[in-house]
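Hi all, a correction to my earlier message: I attached the wrong file for SAND domain-containing protein. Here's the right sequence:
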Amino acid sequence: MSSSVVMEEDEEKIQCGSMLFEQEELQEMSGVNVGGGYVEVMCGCTSHRYGDAVARLRVFPNGDLEITCECTPGCDQDKLTPAAFEKHSGRETARKWKNNVWVIVGGEKVPLSKTVLLKYYNEASKKLNRSNKSQGTKVFHRDEFVGCIECGKERRFRLRSRDECRLHHNAMADPNWKCSDFPYDKITCEAEEERGSRKVYKGCTRSPTCKGCTSCVCFGCELCRFSDCSCQTCVDFTSNVKA
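and the right structure:
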């Protein structure tokens, strides 16, 4: 590929990024950078115990949100979802990333929920809901469990939203996942595991103790497959959707 073609593609990506938001919408935000097909801003999350964890948030036109953490000089956490960053920062009240993750606007910390930065994320969520309704189906994912590599105990993951599905997806992809990585609560291997009699209840709408049926087992949808994930399952799903 010639250098002129590469330059043209880079210019198109930058133009795409610059068109995501009006200049006035971003002018008072700190750390704004328009990149190749995305807009990047400085963000953070505050823990009462550890203080502020700063990072950089990238907003993509397909609704994806990607965070690179800069909480310490040696932190190597990148391509985090907002929910994963919220957990990584040590925020005590997790699962509310739209309110807990903030950006600096006019010198003040403003929750993402009160900015324009969730515009494409919200549009993508609405599009997914409309698509499911038009097909006459309601995508439902039952609860799943992930086992700790150190103690072997299984921890429950809810899969009712795209963020929850991503947390479970990332945990399943991590061969060294352990209890301390659990995204919802600060736990250790010492924490009790759910009783067997309780674990059979996974939230199926057809039967409370269902072991898996077409109502609660999903083999791939836009809620639980991710275009920015390089695992073979997501790559195959994305390729089939585009085909």
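Sorry for the mix-up. The CA atoms of residues 104 and 144 lie 37 Å apart.
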